[in-house]
Amino acid sequence: MGKIRVKALGDEELELKQAEEAKVRKEAKKAEKQTEISTDQVIEKVEAASVEETKLQKKQKKEKFVKTNKKIRSKSYMTKVDLVDKNKNYSLSEAITLLPQLKRAKFDETVELHITTVETGVSGSVSLPHGTGKQMRIAIANGADQKTLDELLAKIEAGNIDFDILIATPDSMPKLAKAARVLGPRGLMPNPKNGTVTPKPEEVAKKYEGGQINFKTESKFPLLHISVGKVSFGEDKIRENVKTVLNAIDSKKIRSITLKSTMSPAIRLDIASL
User: Are 231 and 263 in contact (CB under 8 A)?
Assistant: First the structure.
């Protein structure tokens, strides 16, 4: 006859207690997991909201920048704009006749030619028959006068640029090369191509004082900006200066031309009529 197992009362109570504790632990673990999921969802929502807020802030900042930096034209400018037909290419005579009517400043405005060329690298020099109307400040770097050359270099390196044109003798160029980082960006570095490096600097200086100018397209864009006189010159002198400049530039390299004064709207010229 086999043995009969008898479960003690104390053992049943222990099993029940352990089962209850296991159930409690299971529910607690489940609740903890749900809490973790809920927290992750909250974090994701906060992060998403933060990203959207950042995008909105960037958009508002960009709109504010555009609004702030939008060029606002004065009433006087807008009045002058109405005098120019934007759809018309004016002959040189028509443009020069119209120009004084567009003058806005109390001072004698400079007359400017703005030329778009077919390529960069267009450069040269020309003597205007009536000058630019501006008193040219000319400096000479002469290697034969070391003391004066050193003083000039010291001023340049200190950023004290008090000249419009710098003419140099060939033997001064090694020293001037040290100042290229200052002179280059300002278009003041002497160059044999435009005649500002010469063994006879005094003679060249007289030419500039007599109305000679240099022109060169911008480094990255095919644009020329040339001063051709003052509004007070009158039609005949301005016309002669403009024609002299245009004759110095190969017409095949010109894409478009506008004429304006310092503060006036631009007048588009008819190239075929020039």
Answer: no
The listed CATH number (2.30.30.30, 3.20.20.80, 3.40.50.300, 3.30.190.20) that belongs to domain 75-133+211-274: 3.30.190.20
Residue range 51-63, pLDDT digits in tens: 666 666 667 666 6
Summarize pLDDT for 205-258 with one digit per residue, the tens. Answer: 988 888 888 898 998 899 999 999 999 999 999 999 999 999 999 889 999 999
Task: Give the number of other CB atoms < 10 A from CB of residue 272.
Answer: 7
pTM summary value: 0.64
Query: Three-state SS string across 89-158, please?
Result: CECHHHHHHHHHHHCCCCCCCEEEEEEEECCCCCEEEEECCCCCCCCCCEEEECCCCHHHHHHHHHHHHC
| Secondary-structure class of domain 137-210 per CATH | alpha beta
